Structure formats: structure tokens, C-alpha cells
Amino acid sequence: MSEPILVCPCCGTEIPLTQSLAAPLLAAERKAIAAREASLAAARASLDAEVAARVEAERPRLAGEAEAAAAAEMSALRAELAAREAKLAEAQAAQAEAMRRTREIDEARRELDLTIERRVAEGLAAVQAAARVQAEEAMRLKVAEKEQQLAGMQRTIDELKRRAEQGSQQLQGEVLELDLEAALAARFPTDLVEPVAKGVHGADLVQRVTASGGLRAGVILWETKRARVWQDGWLAKLRADQRAQGAEIAALVSEALPKGIDGFGLVDGIWVAPPRLALALAAALRCGLLDLAAARVAQEGQGTKTELVYDYLRSPRFRHRVEAIAERFSDMAADLDREKKTTQRLWAKREMQISGVLDATYGLYGDLQGIMGKALPGIDGLDAPMLDAPDEGLHAAE
Asked: What is the model's pTM?
């Protein structure tokens, strides 16, 4: 380690600082430093004592000044607080006045709104009453119109159903009629089988029986029915057609047969048979007509007037005349009885309809009373004791 060097401040000569040379200097320097530190400590202790003495001497004065400053500050604070409280009271008074005015304005506004609402409600009630009357009248007219439309639609539906059923039955009957016409024409080629024209009062087919030699034996009138249920009215109609056509025999071919008839048979002067036995019945009836015609030819020119009268009385023509007269009387009596029963049924039906209309009217009037209360005008014949409806319910209904 190199030795420290001292430089002379006058000449600038560098002097190496050896241990032997520095030791006395360091010792002297240490003594001087120790002396200065002792002096500084004594001066510090003297200063602290003097400061403490001065503080003790100044303490009462400082405490008084502090109390005076605090009192002055407190007084200033109190004055400021009083000023602020005065301003606060003034602001509160102004706020209270503003709130009072606001409340008065709100009350006036509410009173005005209530007056407006009351007037609007009064006008609205009148408008609603008038509108309700108009709506009820319009609704009544619409309901009546809808009922008329429904009634018309129902009539149209019934008519379409009737036409469809009639058309279906008519088509089925035409098929059976055409089949019977073809079968008769093929089985009996000498006979004239012709259909009755549509729209002409009569049966379905007319078979003019002719013998092989051209002898006209008579007429068989055929009626065809393709229905599921037998109707006795068919016989009366066919007898009338037989008399109109002047036919000796009338036959009804039907899928539905009267009670007691399994094959074919005679019912009230009309021969009845199912379609499968129609040709067999035609052959039997035709043979009877041919035999009767041959007998008439053999007796021509031999009978007297008495015999002619007797033959007429035994003939189908006389029987048809008598049956026609008897049937007319029977039909007149049956029509009279039916008219009596129909009139009684119509009276009972009208009474039920009138009772239903009255019940519906009372119900409608009661519903309107429940909705409108005393505002509903009274109707003679419908008024009944009515409980006063509460105002709340009335307003709620309105």
C-alpha cells in the first residue's frame, strides 16, 4: 500500500507521510477534535437549559395568547354559524313558501284535471249510451241478417241434399228401368216395350203384349223402384197411372218388398216382384193376357147386352173405376185427417217458438239491465223489479 503524500501549500513540495511523521500530528488533531466535541457538548447543554428556562418563562404568556386566539376564533365561528343559521332559516322559509305554492299549484291542477275528467266522463257517458244504442241496433240487425243468411244457407243445403239424394235415387232407378226394358225387349220380341217420356205423368215402361199372329192382348204397366225401404204410397200412384194409361195389369219391380212378400205377389191390385223375378212375373202376366185375348176373340159376336154388361162388371176396367172412386174418398178422408194433425203440430210448434223467442228476449233484456243499470230505458212488457246496481259496478261496466 503506498503512503499518503502531503503537498506544501507554499512551495508545492510533496512530502511522504510516514508513520513516524504522522503519528504526532494525528495525536494532536485527535486532542483538538476531542476538545471541540467537549466544548460543543457543554454549549449544547447550556443552550438546552437556556431554552427550557425561556420556555418555562414564556409558557403562561403563550397559553394566554392561545386561549385568546381560540376564544376569538370560537367567537368568529359562532358569528359565522349564526349567519349561516340565519341564511338557512331564510332558505328554509323560502323553500317552505315554494313548497306551499307548489302544493297549491298541484291542488289547482288536480282540481282542474278532475273537472275536465268529470266533464269528459259526462260527455263520454252520453256518447257511450248513444253508441251502445247504435251498436245494439246494428248488432240486432247483423244478428237478424246472419240468421236470415243461415236460414237461407240451411235451405240451400237441404235443397242440395234433396237434389243429390233425388238425383242418386233417380239415377239408380233409371239403371234398373233400362235393364228391365232391355230384358223385356229381348225376352218378348213380338211385344212393344217403350219407356214413358220424362215429364209425362205415368209409370216407367209400357209393355204392349202382342201374340205371334199380331193380336193385341193388352197392356202391362211397369214401375221400377230401387230404394232401401218399402213405401205403400207407390201402390196408390201406380194404380192412378194404370187407370190413366188404361192398362189391364200394373206391376212394380222393387228391391224393397212389402211385408209378407218373399217372391212376387199381388198387393192391393198391383203385382209386386224383386228385380230377379221380373221376367218370370212378366211371362206369367203375359200368358194370362194372351189367354184372355184368345177367349175374347172366340166369344166375339156371341154375347148379348146382358152378357156385355156382365163382362164389363167382371172386367178390370170396371174394377178400376170403382177402385178409383173408393180411393178418392179414402184420399179425401186421409187428407182431412192429415190436415188436422198438421195444424195441431204447427200450433204446438208455433207455441214453442213463441215461448223460446220470449225467453231469449227476457234474457237479453236482463243482460242489458245488468250492464247499463238504470240507464237502460224501460220497455213495456219486459220491465221487472230490478235491484239497484252499485255505482262502482256501473262505472266499471262503463
From this structure: 0.38
